[in-house]
Structure formats: structure tokens, C-alpha cells
Amino acid sequence: MRDGKRRARHAARPATVLLLGGVLALTACGTAGDDTPPSGGGTEAREAAAPASAARITITPDDDADNVGLNDGVQVSVADGTLDAVRLTAVDSGDTVAGSLSADRTRWQPDDRLERATGYRLAVRAVDAEGRTAYENVTFRTVSPDNSFIGHFTPEDGSTVGVGMPVSLNFDKEITEKAAVEAAVEINTSSGQEVTGHWFSGTRLDFRPQEYWAAGTEVTVDLDFDGLQGAPGVTGIQDRTFSFTVGRSQVSTVDARTKQMTVVRDGQVLRTLPISAGSDENPTYNGQMVISEKHRETRMNGATVGFTDDDGEGEYDIKDVPHAMRLSSSGTFIHGNYWSGPETFGAVNASHGCIGLADVQGAWDETQDGAWFYDNSLLGDVVTVINSPDREMAPDNGLNGWNMPWHQWIAGSALTTP
Known about the structure:
Blueprint: H1 19-28, H2 41-49, E1 56-60, E2 65-68, E3 75-79, E4 82-90, E5 96-97, E6 99-101, E7 107-110, E8 119-127, E9 133-142, E10 148-149, E11 151-154, E12 160-161, E13 167-171, H3 178-183, E14 185-189, E15 196-201, E16 204-208, E17 218-224, E18 229-231, E19 234-236, E20 239-246, E21 250-255, E22 260-265, E23 268-274, E24 287-290, E25 293-301, E26 317-326, E27 333-337, E28 355-358, H4 369-375, E29 382-386, H5 406-411
Parallel strand pairs: 2-9, 10-19, 12-20, 21-29, 27-28
Antiparallel strand pairs: 1-3, 3-7, 4-5, 4-8, 6-7, 8-9, 11-13, 13-16, 14-17, 15-16, 17-20, 18-19, 21-22, 22-23, 24-29, 25-26, 26-27
């Protein structure tokens, strides 16, 4: 579980200073970042006879390291001296990676994330109090796509969403170290609501509170996956924070028997709209459904969701469905409908499972019910269907984990103690 208290995950980042420009200028002159001290004539003999520098350079990663992390995988420090020059370059392109020195010139790290599957060369020069130089050089290669994972997240950073929006992570690799990965997700809420994760599969992890989000809640999500093993030979590369705001509370209830939808905002009935739900042959799912997409117009072809005729063609193919909002991954939408007569809404359930509202072709008339509901809905708003002859929507079909009882939800967390 998570609460509103944020942990400190990394040491403070060294300050960026103007000295770095001088460091790279020295490198460009050929007196810093070289593999060996300058040679030739009597200089080499004199340096060989001189006492060694007291400066001791430490570099992470080791020389010839492979699968190095992209965010915090490269660090340079020096003891008993200061860093005089640091140069990090991509082996193939020769591009130089900018970095930052600490104020005391004893630490350095790259400014930006490195590229995946790329070879790098790092050359470092330091000096001790007597001005004697020390050198270290390493080459390494960053983690490849085959050996790394990322989590694609919903909702978008900076968005305002409805009270039903979960935090959903979809990984590009199968995760076997589920407890470690789940523990690396920190969710902080201004409302103080505790949030628990649930693994729907090895590639999908959702988080939600026990009840809908409180309206106005500010949510911050911290993904600390960089360098974390998600499966044997597969490490994370993300060190990412995103946030979103929960807007007003809007939950709409569709009664498939009465063919009416009641829109409730912040506890007050906003409007009641006549609808047409799924027919007896193709009823609409019951249950709580979260709006996951919005399209002012979109194409709907029955063949994409299994509704085909004897020739394999879609039973319907409507290229300009107005004001469509997705409720499930399997193709359930609530949308405007211009092809049915106005007498249909509130009287007949005639769809293939979607919820239809009166509308016009072209989505131009803002007075239509379809347009009004679209304009007054957020991603994350909840549409609950009752009294339909079909079964309940599966929790993993879209963002609909609210259809799972809380005790089952927390049992799907890799961090839950039996």
C-alpha cells in the first residue's frame, strides 16, 4: 500500500556549474581525456620519475561493462583531488554527452539519459593538491531493448481525469520479479487514500484505491525502475515521475430495462437521457466501466469485434460515428447515433452492445444528447450499466478493475502478505 508520504530515492543531484565548459575545452585541446599522459622527449622520463598523483578516481560502471543503466548507470568521483576533465562520448557517432560537476569538483554525472544499446567511452583526468595528474578510462555499452523493460502508463502526465481512472502500467516485457517491480512504484495522494496494485498478467499492473478517487485529489506516481531486474536478464530503464488531477465526481448509471441514463455529478442529478442499449441478441455488459478514450468521430466496423456476416464482412461499417467514448477493450462504447430514428432512444434496445445516444451525422449539433454527454465527460468518468441480461464486465477488459471486489483486488498484489 502507498500513502501520502514521499520517500527520498536518490542522493541529491550534483550542482551544474560553469566549470564543465572549461573541462570540455581542455579535452578539445588534447590535454584532457587522453588515454595516457602526454608523451615525447624528456617529459616522459621526468613523469615516470615523479611521485604518483594522490588523486584516486572511481568510475561506475567498470571497464567493458554491458547492459549499463540509462539514467544513473554512470558516475565519476575522485578522492584526494579534484576532477580536471571528464569526457563521455558515444563510440560510433563520436557525440559528446554533456554532464555536470559538483560544486567541489569531486563528482560528475551525465545531464541526460543515455541511449539504449549504445557503446560509450569515458575518459577522466584529476589532479591532486600538488597539481599531479591521474587518469582513468573505461568503455561500456548500455542496456539493449532485448534486455530492458519499460512501463507504458495511463493516465497521461498533467491530465485531469474522472474519479474512476486507475493507474495502469503495461510493460513491454513479461515481468517475473513482480514484488520488486510493484514496490518500485510509489503513489502519493493529496486525499490520503491508500492505493494497492493488482497484477492482471505478467505485463499489466493496475493501481487503485478501495473506493473511487475523492474529487480534487492530486496524484503523483514515481516509477523507480532504472537498473531494477524485472525478469532474468531484463532490467528497467525508467526513472520517471508523472502526476494527474482528479476532477469533479461524475458517475452515470445506464438502466438497460428503462432505457434511461442518469448523470450524477458531485452527488446531484445533472440530466437524465434516453438511450438505446444492446439488443436481446447482443446485450450490453453490466457493471462499472471507465471511459478510456474519446473521439469526436470514429469508424466502427463489426468485423473488428467479431460481428461478421456469412461472407466474413462486418455486420456494420459506420465511418463517422459521432461522439464516441470507449468503455472496454473489446469494443463497448457509449456514442452518438444518427442512423436510428429518434423514437428508438428510451424505447428500444437495438445495438450490438454499445450504448447509443441521439445525435446527428457530422457531430456538429451541440444540442444533441450525444454531443452534450461527450462535452461533459472526462477520461476516467464512470458509466455503470444495470439490469442488462448480459454478464458483468470483466475487470481486465479496459480500465474496469472496479468490478473486482476489494479482497480479490488486494490478493492480486505481489506485496500482499497472505
